[in-house]
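Quarterly update from the structural biology core.
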Amino acid sequence: MINNKKLYKVAVGGFYLESNSFVGGETTLDDFKNQTFAEGSAISRNSAGSASEFAGAWDVLTQANCELIPTLIAYSSPRPPMTKEALDMITETILTAIPTDIDGVYLMLHGSAWAHHEDDPEGVLLTKIRQKIGPNKFIAISLDLHAYFTEQMLKAVDIVSAYKTCPHLDLYETGARSAEILVQALRGEVKPKTVMAIAPMITPPEHHDHNRAPFKTLMDATRKTQSGKVLIASLLATQPWLNVPELAWKAIITVDGDVEYGQKQAQELIDQAWVLRKEFLSVTAKPVAIAFEEALAMGTPTVIADMGDATNGGSLGDSTEVLRVALASKSSGSVAVSITEPSAVITSQSSIGQRVQLTLGSGEPGSYNERVLVYAKVIATANKKISYTHPAALDVVDDPGLSVLIEVEHPTIKIYIVLHSQPVRVIDPVIYELFDLKVNEIGVLQGKSHVSFIPGFARITPRYVLADTLGPTAANLPSLPFTKRMKPLYPFEDI
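Predicted structure, tokenized:
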């Protein structure tokens, strides 16, 4: 007779948001509900995507014959600071759904949520869970390697696993590893303890690429560290566009019992990052006008990466810089750009086939989203969601809202713009494919990230140029109005 009795009761859920402190607007509960939001029995293995950390943890826990108690999956693309209402609802829903007789908890977190009233949303959530379940139950989490990991989070958790790839490709494995150690802990096979070491440095993501030094050197060292007593080794390069007091690179080690050994390994790992800190400040990106001309001259298609308006870093996607250099160019070719511009969508939505005059952008002269006047033909409208094809967001649904495709008048360049009402991640071509644009035949496609666009656009092109643009995700970190950061902090101070 087969014994189907569940061995352990594990609460599972996810709260996933990467915020940006330097953008206007807010992320509301409706923003989560318009993307990925499920409670209780509505949660399934694929709720956060078939290749997600949650799917990886789900598989490990079910294979270990655990009884899963689904709580909440609230997943949003990177966006502005979240509202108090959204944070309170997410926190209380997860907390209420966790029974007091739970054996363990697994949560899929990004680790970089932020609100104007709260610097550490994940830390607050984890602390409340710890208070509810007591000191002897296990809490396991998975994180993005750009997580803002805090002392409050450290005190609350037992097991931490973060990505070892950027662009992020190991989501499933990261969740699975966290769950594997949780299962081992429940069985009494290991005694997980997590420790942290800090380097007073922060760097833009331009060189956060696990395929190239210096980041490859550090990710290789992280994998090497993860052996023996070190159950999980993680190196967090941290989201750099957060105005928070504990902003810094961190090494996080989950060790089997021997805290002193784990602390030594964490310090050695973060020391290696500190030695390489200056290499992360070298600039390979080019001024946007130069980058655009180079992209036009390369094979079709080529991606121009708008680094200052990186929508996977919480920017709103409302930059007009690439558009403005295209309008000023005397070259020939074609380009497709994406702009979050709800007012222009409303103005043009009923003018299909007609010539319209639109003002795009809302910024003053010299700003990244400087207002620009265009004359264009309205080609089509759409009002449907997109499903990402990027490996790190595979099957994840996002909502651009009402959208309009226009072709801007220019004597020698075909300029297509997808105007949409809500920010979306431009890390793969799906926002352009919303209108069935033949992306393979367009000379230049705008991407909006520092690194993540590379695997996202790889299915249509390996070619790209980095544009050193302005905006809330600018590579020039000292240009942004930080007020809470630690001091000294490299590169703000040369330590």
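The chain has a mean pLDDT of 95.
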